Amino acid sequence: MQSVVEANNKFTLDLYQVLQKDDKFTDKNLFYSPSSISIALAMTSMGARGDTAKQLSEALHWEAMTSDQLHDQQRHFLDALQDSNAEGNELLAANRLFVQKSLTIEQEFLEGTKRFYNAETALTDYQKDPEGARKEVNDWVERKTKENIKNLIPEGVFNSSTKLTLVNAIYFKGIWQNEFNRRATRSKDFFVSKKEKVKVKMMKLKTKFKHIANGAELGCQLLELPYQGEDLSMLILLPQDKYGLASVEASLTHDKLQKAIALTQEQPPGRVKVYLPRFKMTQEFQLKKPLAKMGVTDMFNAKADFTGISPGLFVSHVIHKAFVEVNEKGTEAAAATAVVMSRSKSPSGGSAKIPVFCADHPFLFLLCHKKSGGILFMGRMMKPEPLD
Fold first, then answer.
1. What is residue 342's three-state secondary structure?
2. pLDDT at 89
3. CB-based contact 340:99 (threshold 8 Å)
């Protein structure tokens, strides 16, 4: 699954660069699951042909793989995620097709999504009961994400032209290998910018972690916080400069990030005093414009070629919603992606002193599947919720 993991990680950074430049996210928190998005789009691509398929392949870095290789590697990736469940941890991924009951779909597409993505098919009636269909999709997503992703499909998205919705849901709950002591959590300043600071609940822990005090190429400290079982971890990129996140973001590339992850993994654990804020966020995205900026345009209009699913279909919406909560015990994260299809009417130095990793200013964080190297979630913490 090496090629599909590398493609996913490249897509992670490409999408991050597009989203963080969006006016909606200027100086704001950001959190999404590139894995959920790429799995949903990979299922969609199974029915894409011609330029529609080519644009998806280029934007998601699938060019080095044949279609069969892509879907086979996605299947192995999904299997590897499921195999990472350990005592105290949960990692679940689920896929489903919600099909208009009157729509005739190519049997090869149905069999392929079932074989490679374990996607069950549910018949629904967008034409006569779009609100009932919306409730059906949203209820399924809510169940699969342990009630963390609610109302994925907003009102007004489904209508009588809607024919098919492809949905991926991913859920993660991880217990820290070294839990923070709740009694050590204190109120502390978080420096949002030179002009703003907020009081947050800052967790504290001193123990051995893989830590790089100065990732010179990125200008930040790197810290890995493993979850029980060690298959999964959080990697935090904390700028050396309190107000230097924009500089880190500007210099961040796929190669630099992969090198940072590899260097951190190779690092022997050493004692570190860690300060990390408790935080929680939920974010939702309409990904039509970001994907168009990445070169995926034809699937959203009359040029769309999804004859591998059913003639005349185009994608009207790509909706993504993600949730994360980090506390003393561990991390809970969930995400869901819906592709809605309609029919057209037309290295660091040693020191005796214990290093301090104090995340009291904006930082980036990743939730990684260590066995595959895949990035499951990526986020930016600009401003935790202030204390009441």
1. strand
2. 84
3. no
